[in-house]
Structures are given as C-alpha cells and as structure tokens.
Recover the amino acids of this structure.
C-alpha cells in the first residue's frame, strides 16, 4: 500500500548532530563544519539540549547523527538520557563502522533503530562514493546488528552515480534482514554544493521510472520503504514543513534549523545559547518559508534548481515538494 505521509502535527522530530567528525569522506557528505562547528558536544550539553525538545504533550522522536555518532564515547549514556526524557523513538544513523563497541554497550530495548548508510548494491559503486572498504564494513555492521536483535534500516541516497544499482538492492535488503529501507535523494549542500556536483541530481523521468517500482518490489518483501516525493503531481497541494511541522536539525555550534536545505547558510531560525532556545533575527529560513512560487519549494529553487525544467512560456513543468514529504509503501 502506497501513501504520502503527511507532516505530523502531533510529533516533534529532533535530528541531533552530536558531533561533526567522521572517519569517512563521502563524496556527497552534507556536513559543512564551517557552518556547523567542529565540536563534539559533551554529555551534559547534550542532556540539556535534549530537554529543550522533550515536549510532554507531543510525541518526541530523536535521531542521533554526526559525523559518525558512534565515534562519541558517551553515546550509550546519551541514549539513556533520551529514554529518561521519554523520547518515543531513538534512532542512531551510522556509516556501519560502529565504533566504541556500540552493539555491546546498548541493547535492542534501548535503541529503536540503527540506520545504516549504504549507497550501492556493490562495493564498486558504494565505495566510489563512500570510500574503500565502506561497503564490506557496512554489511558486516548490519549483520552484527541484526544478529544481536537490533532493528536495522538502510538509507540509500540516490544520485546519478548509483541509481542504476537501486533495483539490485532488493536481493541485498532481503538477505540482510533489515526492517526498513529509506531511499533518499542527493541534496546539493555540503560537499556536492562546494564541488559543483549538481550534475548528480536525478531527473524527474529517471526518478519516476525507477524509484517507485523498486520501492514497491522491496515493500513486497514485507519491508517498510519510504522515499521522498520530490515531484508533485498536477493538482497536488504544496506544503512547507517549516510552517506546519516540528522538525529540528541541531548542530554542535548551537544552530537549529527547521529546513535541511538551509543548512549551508546562516539561515537557522533558532540558536541554542546557554542551554536556551532563542529565535534568531530576520532574515532567516522562516521568512523564506512564507514565499509562494510556481516551482513549489523556495529553497529547492535557490540551492538545487537542477531538478527543475520549464515550458517555452517559462512556467515550470513540475512543482517540487518539500524535501521532507515522503511516500511510504508497506506490503
Ligand atoms: S559517513 Fe556520513 S558524516 Fe561521514 S563522511 Fe559519509 S556522509 Fe559524511
Ligand atoms: S525543503 Fe522547502 S518546503 Fe521543505 S521546509 Fe525547506 S523550504 Fe520548506
């Protein structure tokens, strides 16, 4: 069954970058330490910042990210803190290297999901993007997590460099025994923006020809599959998550964004100072969310317009959905 997942009005989603350092140097890495800081946040700060978003009246979910979050020596204590604060779900996004023996220091009852980033069905394609040895290590990490009783997801970031192997993921996902498969689309921020890699963006034609059908086949295995909507169908309503949902993307330098496409710029609408959440002065991302343009998402038009095309009269052929709008397919 396929459905567009509307933005949750009754949940708070916290994407918490607890550090920016990483052992890998992926070609499409969106982390931009010049904008996000170089710090590894201490446990006490992380606890205080988690408190800011642990709203008792709404369900709060947290995803710990980096950099590579398992490099943080206090990750087990951080997860404990999130549980004590009643976060409903706790996810750790990892490149699969699973540092600090993390699978032995937390249990399946502590972490709802480990989400593993894998960008190819073969080592050739994945390692060309993520670095030599990343494929084998990630597969080993997924197998260890699953055999230790953890729920695991795979995140596959689609670009022109790997869309040709997406269909091959069906067999791999089945063999690995993961619960969820997330298809992402490459964002032109961080390294792709700095290195002029906008040619890696996938066209509407390729996206629609490949992604929904692969997602459907993998969902047929009993695995939950999500992928970003990207292109709105004619007549579909455009909504900006920054106006109607509560997503917070937190970085170690205290910047808090509501929109991931703004993260390369000092456009954050909130800052954490002395453990208090403070609105930033205009102009910030909130001012951009209010703008209505025929292309749909304003930030997509500004930072990654390579997925837009126009008719001879200048009108856009497609409107771009909010990058946070997902399609979910279940069996
Ligand atoms: S594993 Fe993640 S944080 Fe590390 S370099 Fe790759 S994309 Fe960036
Ligand atoms: S991606 Fe576009 S639509 Fe979504 S929050 Fe950002 S500006 Fe709004």
């Amino acid at each position: 069954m396929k459905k567009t997942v509307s933005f949750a009005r009754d949940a708070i989603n916290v994407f918490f970058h607890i550090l920016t350092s990483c052992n890998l140097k992926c070609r499409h890495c969106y982390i931009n330490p010049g904008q996000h800081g170089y710090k590894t946040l201490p446990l006490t700060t992380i606890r205080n910042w988690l408190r800011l978003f642990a709203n008792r009246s709404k369900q709060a979910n947290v995803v710990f990210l980096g950099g590579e979050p398992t490099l943080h020596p206090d990750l087990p204590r951080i997860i404990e803190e999130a549980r004590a604060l009643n976060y409903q779900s706790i996810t750790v996004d990892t490149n699969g290297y699973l540092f600090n023996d993390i699978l032995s220091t937390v249990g399946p009852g502590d972490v709802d999901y480990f989400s593993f980033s894998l960008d190819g069905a073969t080592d050739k394609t994945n390692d060309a993007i993520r670095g030599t040895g990343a494929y084998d290590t990630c597969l080993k990490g997924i197998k260890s997590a699953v055999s230790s009783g953890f729920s695991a997801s795979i995140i596959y970031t689609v670009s022109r460099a790997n869309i040709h192997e997406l269909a091959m993921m069906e067999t791999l996902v089945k063999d690995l025994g993961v619960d969820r498969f997330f298809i992402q689309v490459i964002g032109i921020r961080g390294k792709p923006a700095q290195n002029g890699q906008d040619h890696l963006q996938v066209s509407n034609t390729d996206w629609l020809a490949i992604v929904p059908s692969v997602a459907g086949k993998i969902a047929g295995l009993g695995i939950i599959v999500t992928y970003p909507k990207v292109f709105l169908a004619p007549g579909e309503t455009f909504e900006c998550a920054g106006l109607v949902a509560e997503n917070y993307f937190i970085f170690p330098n205290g910047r808090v964004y509501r929109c991931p496409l703004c993260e390369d710029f000092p456009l954050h609408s909130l800052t954490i100072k002395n453990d208090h959440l403070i609105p930033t002065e205009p102009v910030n991302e909130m001012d951009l969310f209010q703008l209505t343009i025929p292309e749909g998402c304003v930030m997509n038009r500004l930072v990654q317009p390579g997925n837009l095309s126009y008719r001879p009269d200048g009108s856009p052929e497609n409107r771009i959905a909010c990058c946070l709008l997902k399609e979910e397919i279940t069996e």
About this structure: The chain has a mean pLDDT of 94. The longest strand covers residues 11-17.
